[in-house]
Amino acid sequence: MSDARTRILGKVRAAMGRETTPTPADVQAARAGALGKGTPQRPVWEESDLARFCRCIDDAAGTWVTVPTLAEAGTAVADYLAEREAGTTVHRAPDPRLDHVAWPGHLAVERATDGRKALAAVSCAVAGVAETGSLALVSGPDNPATLAFLPDYHIVVLGTADVVPWFEDLWARMREQEGFPPRSFNFITGPSRTADVEQTLQLGAHGPRSLHVILVENMP
Amino acid sequence: MESRAHLFKPAAREALHNPDLQQALTRVQAGFVGKRRTLVNKFPDFEGLRDRGQAMKDHTLAHLDYYLEQFEAKVHEAGGHVHWAETAEDAQRIVADICRQADARMVTKGKTMAGEEVGINEALDAAGLETVETDLGEYIIQLAKEPPSHIIAPAIHKTRQQICDLFDEHHHQGTFKEKLREVPDLVNEARGILRGKFLNADVGITGANCLVAETGSMFLVTNEGNGDLTHSLPRVHVAIAGIEKLVPTLDDASTLIRLLARSATGQEMTAYTTMVTGPRRGDDTDGPEEFHIVLLDHGRTNMMSGRFREMLRCIRCGACMNHCPVYASIGGHAYGWVYPGPMGSVLTPIFVGLDKTKDLPNACTLNGRCQSVCPVRIPLPDLLRDLREAQFDQHLTPGTTRHGLAVWAWFARRPRVYNALSRLGIGLLGRLGRRRGRFRRLPLAGAWTAGRDFPAPQRTTFQAAWRQHLSRRQTHE
Ligand code: SF4
Question: Which fold has domain A49-218?
Answer without folding.
Answer: Rossmann fold (3.40.50)
